[in-house]
Automatic annotation (TrEMBL):
Family: Belongs to the calycin superfamily. Fatty-acid binding protein (FABP) family.
Protein source organism: Dissostichus eleginoides
Entry superkingdom: Eukaryota
Keyword Nucleotide-binding: no
Annotated protein name in UniProt: Cellular retinoic acid-binding protein 1
Domain Cytosolic fatty-acid binding proteins, residue spans: 7-24
Lineage of the organism: Eukaryota, Metazoa, Chordata, Craniata, Vertebrata
Pfam family, one: Lipocalin
GO terms, molecular function: retinal binding; retinol binding
InterPro entries in the record: Calycin, Fatty_acid-bd, ILBP, Lipocln_cytosolic_FA-bd_dom
Function noted in UniProt: Cytosolic CRABPs may regulate the access of retinoic acid to the nuclear retinoic acid receptors.
Keywords from the UniProt entry: Retinol-binding, Transport, Vitamin A
C-alpha cells in the first residue's frame, strides 16, 4: 500500500550530494551553490497523480506525473538533459528510473514517521537526503 506523501517537508540532512552532482557532470559553480542549499519539498499526492515541488532560494523544480506512466522529463536547470522517466511504487517506496545519457539514474522517496527520505542515484553514486514534515 503506497504511503501518503502529502505535505511540506524541510531538509534536515544531505550526504554525498556534490559527488552525485559530479556524476551528472554539473559544472563546478552550480555544484558549489547547490551544495549550500537546503531545499524544501512540497508534495501533493492524489491517487496516481503526484506533484513534487523542490523549492530553494536559487532554483525551483516541479515534477508533475502519474505513477506508472513513462514521460519525457526536461531537466533544464538541473543538468540540462532530457530523459525518459518512469515512476512506480515498490511497496511503500516511490521509485523513479530516468533513462538517458547517465547510467543508473533515478531516485527513491520513502517515509519513516515524520521524515521523508530521498535517495538520489547516478552513475554508481548515491546521495541521501532527509526532510522533516512541517
Amino acid at each position: 500500500m503506497p504511503v501518503d506523501l502529502n505535505g511540506y517537508w524541510k531538509m534536515i540532512s544531505s550526504d554525498n550530494f556534490e559527488e552525485y552532482l559530479k556524476a551528472l557532470d554539473v559544472n563546478v559553480a552550480i555544484r558549489k551553490i547547490a551544495t549550500l542549499l537546503k531545499p524544501d519539498k512540497d508534495i501533493s499526492h492524489d491517487g496516481d497523480h503526484i506533484v513534487i515541488k523542490t523549492l530553494s532560494t536559487f532554483k525551483n523544480y516541479n515534477m508533475d506525473f502519474h505513477v506508472g506512466k513513462e514521460f519525457e522529463e526536461d531537466l533544464s536547470g538541473v543538468d540540462d538533459r532530457k530523459c525518459m522517466t518512469t515512476i512506480s511504487w515498490d511497496g511503500d517506496k516511490l521509485v523513479c528510473v530516468q533513462k538517458g545519457e547517465i547510467e543508473g539514474r533515478g531516485w527513491t522517496h520513502s517515509v519513516d514517521g515524520d521524515e521523508l527520505h530521498l535517495e538520489l542515484r547516478a552513475g554508481g553514486v548515491v546521495s541521501k537526503q532527509v526532510f522533516k514534515k512541517s
